[in-house]
Write a structure and sequence with these properties.
The chain is mainly beta and 141 residues long. A hairpin with a 5-residue loop joins strand 1 and strand 2.
Length: 141
Amino acid sequence: MGAHISIPMYQRAVAQRYRLAGQKCKKCGKINFPPKAVCKYCQASNEFEYVQLSGKGTVYSNTVIAGGGAPPEFAEEAKCKGSYPVAIVELEEGPRVIAQLVNPPEEGYAIGMPVEVVFRKIYEEEGVIRYGFKFRVATQP
């Protein structure tokens, strides 16, 4: 196993992983996700208002990860399932996130396709199941 994330560090990220909690910069008004200590857009502010992100977005870019290219935390999944789709998703609120895509449509995922967040098991470490967000084709536009 590669990139170890301690249980306390994982617990600090629960709001962003389970609720898509972002932060709106009080200076420039842009949404930071995942949350940062300083605004990644204006670098001038560390004052934020927490916002609930909708979980809706569009595929900005996508690829398929094959077994040999899987990060260590997904090695087991790659062994079981083979390849899997991953995308950069542009959220309605502006931020772009990298996430795994699930339940691909027959024609596959395409740039511009509307997607929505789902929460699924990511991997298990130290006997703790780590959940997080993935995306699927949006059921409603």
